[in-house]
Amino acid sequence: MYFHDVPQNTDEWAALRLGKATCSNFACFMANDGGAFGEPAKKYALQIALELDTGRKAEYSFSNEHTERGHEQEPVARMLYASENFVSVSNGGFFDCGDYGDSPDGLVGEDGVIEIKSVVAPTHYATLLRKSFDPAYRWQLVGHLDCTERTWVDFISYCADFRDDQQLIVHRLHREACEAELKRLQERRAEFLELVRKTLKNIQG
Predict the structure, then answer these.
(1) C-alpha torsion sign, points 53, 54, 60, 62
(2) What is the pTM for the complete model shown?
(3) What DSSP designation does 173 have?
(4) What's the pLDDT at 32?
(5) Which pLDDT tens digit goes with each residue over 24-60?
(6) Domain containing 187 — which CATH number?
(7) pLDDT value, residue 50
(8) CA–CA separation, 71 vs 61, rounded Å?
(9) Ranges of H-type helices in 131-178
(10) I want to staple 95 with a disulfide (CB 3.0 to 4.6 A). Which of 55, 102, 107, 165 is the partner?
């Protein structure tokens, strides 16, 4: 694993991620764990294979209004988190692990990493009621711990529609609480990367 301390969403950062499986998409191949890969995993494998073959970002890679809102509001959420927890948050950069990698939203000291979700009110409210992070993001969080080799990850839900003391919800996942999941992720990811290699071979004839 090698850490690149580069600004996120820049051309240099995008080039480092090209042709690699990244944490934000680990849930694609963790679905149906132990069984055959579904369509989302196959589509993601094709995206990565195309990037490896062409050397450029796949045209259909994911982006929508939610990701744009996240980019705009993430700095506000990071500032509130740092202020409320009396910590400094440094650049998440990119953790290069060879065929895969990770771009966390920030690093805290030597042990922590954060994942920020800037969400709409109903999603934030569901997290408030659940008193935990959205299970849909569990493999991304486990992936953060695996790729960064850090001790804990804080899931941060942010919504400006709520009153000041409820705009930020934080739930921490400790590495010791998900050792079995780390092993499952590593095994399934190895199978997925083999699917990427087979897809690339098919493309190249």
Answers:
(1) positive
(2) 0.91
(3) E
(4) 84
(5) 999 999 998 888 999 999 999 999 999 999 999 876 5
(6) 3.90.320.10
(7) 96
(8) 16
(9) 138-148
(10) 102
Rounded distance, CA 90 to CA 107, Å?
Answer: 5
Here the tokens at position 41 are 């995993």
- Of 185, 199, 195, nearest to 102 (Cα)? 185
Q: Please name the helix (run of DSSP H) or strand (run of DSSP E) that holds residue 4, with its range, or none.
A: strand 2-4
State the total domains in the chain. 1
Tokens at residue 147, please? 């790729």
Taking only the tens place, the pLDDT of each residue in 78-130 is: 999 999 999 999 999 999 999 999 999 999 999 999 999 999 999 999 999 99
Q: How far apart are CA 157 and CA 176, in angstroms?
A: 23
C-alpha–C-alpha distance, residues 33 and 46, integer Å: 19
Q: What amino acid is encoded at 137 in this protein?
A: Y
Q: String of b and e for 167-205 (b: at least 16 CB within 10 Å)?
A: bbbbbebebeebeebeebbeebbeebbebbeebbeeeee
- Domain range for 132 is 2-204
